[in-house]
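[Meeting: bench + compute handoff]

Bench side (C.D.) handed over the final construct sequence. Compute side (W.E.) agreed to return the predicted structure before the next meeting so the bench team could plan truncations. Sequence as handed over:
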Amino acid sequence: MASCKLYSVLLAVAVLLAAGPATRPAAAASAHLHFYMHDVLTGPAPTAVQVVNGPHGHFGDTIVIDDVLTEGAARSSPAVGRAQGHYTWASVGNPELLVTMNVVLASGPYAGSSVTVVGRDDIGAPVRELSVVGGTGAFRMATGYVLWRTVSLDHPNAVLELDVFVNP
């Protein structure tokens, strides 16, 4: 009988230890971030560079980015961070990209945090939706989505408007 009670106590302790702390930090509130991404492939200071030329047309072309994020659409607008990652032309017949990037915030209440974005960018659509699949700092393990629009296109350079909806 004593061994049965000891076993029950040990089992209860193991379950409590496996469950982790009884209190968890309060979750941050959802956030809506809004800024502009300047994708510049030409000129004296490009922020994007093509590293792979696809074998047929643009299919397979891969561009690595370190694009500036600003408060407004003008490049002279205050910078809020960088979009760092890459995009690949992922369709044989249509202008569709696979985008993988980290939105790294350098100013404001989320400075030092980042949001990881992955998704399909159908360049021809007026509004595109990509997924938030993680993040760091205030956005650790975040989920959500990004709506982005092309504000201006001076081929191959572009300015995109990003609305990021994050659920930490």
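W.E. noted at the follow-up: Residues 2-19 form the longest helix (18 residues). C.D. will use this when planning the next construct.
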